[in-house]
């Protein structure tokens, strides 16, 4: 039995609420809570529209019997840079997981100086059959246009090498996050501590995004 779009959309929306509502609310400062409440209605409308598109794509794939086996995480590992911000790679790990008939794979690499003053984490995720739908759940920024800034930090959606991206940086702690959506299937995420945003952007240049995009149809099959 094919799940109707309404059911898929409901599932996506439920997971999105959980993803956005995770964490201890009491630990949030009143300032950050106020900033979250300042998200415009246009952002929510855009988010719902993107979620509906994702549900339609998933429904279409189900109706056509299209499945997508995630790229072997060992292959994704080959795209992880040997160094990041001048730091040698200190750890790597990868796995493939599945639930409710959907599978995904991801790899992660860590880079850290001996004195722990700088560290970087690079993650590549393949959403497999969930494609854009799972991407929406994994990264809420995909659904909206964001541009916020205070004297201490900023966050915004942007484009990097033609891919939708999200960057966030804390000036005081020198903590940054840079994420990209590639081919509506892969998410590349780079997090750093004790670094500048420009350094994180240089890490992106060390990842062969063209090779990753070339894998967009890998594992696709029709029953």
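Q: What amino acid sequence fits the structure above?
A:
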């Amino acid at each position: 039995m094919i799940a109707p779009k309404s059911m898929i959309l409901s599932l996506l929306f439920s997971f999105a609420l959980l993803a956005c509502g995770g964490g201890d609310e009491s630990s949030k400062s009143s300032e950050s809570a106020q900033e979250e409440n300042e998200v415009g209605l246009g952002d929510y409308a855009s988010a719902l529209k993107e979620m509906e598109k994702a549900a339609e794509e998933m429904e279409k794939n189900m109706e056509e019997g299209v499945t997508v086996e995630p790229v072997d995480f060992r292959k994704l590992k080959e795209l992880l840079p040997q160094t990041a911000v001048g730091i040698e790679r200190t750890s790597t790990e990868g796995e493939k997981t599945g639930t409710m008939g959907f599978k995904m794979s991801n790899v992660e690499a860590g880079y850290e100086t001996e004195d722990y003053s700088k560290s970087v984490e690079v993650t590549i995720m393949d959403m497999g059959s969930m494609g854009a739908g799972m991407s929406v759940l994994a990264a809420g920024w995909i659904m909206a246009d964001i541009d916020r800034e205070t004297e201490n930090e900023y966050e915004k959606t942007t484009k990097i090498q033609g891919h939708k991206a999200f960057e966030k940086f804390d000036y005081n702690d020198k903590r940054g996050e840079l994420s990209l959506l590639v081919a509506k299937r892969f998410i590349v995420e780079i997090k750093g501590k004790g670094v500048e945003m420009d350094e994180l952007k240089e890490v992106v240049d060390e990842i062969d995004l063209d090779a990753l995009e070339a894998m967009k149809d890998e594992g696709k099959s029709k029953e």
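Q: And what stands out in the fold?
A: The first helix runs from residue 5 to 21.
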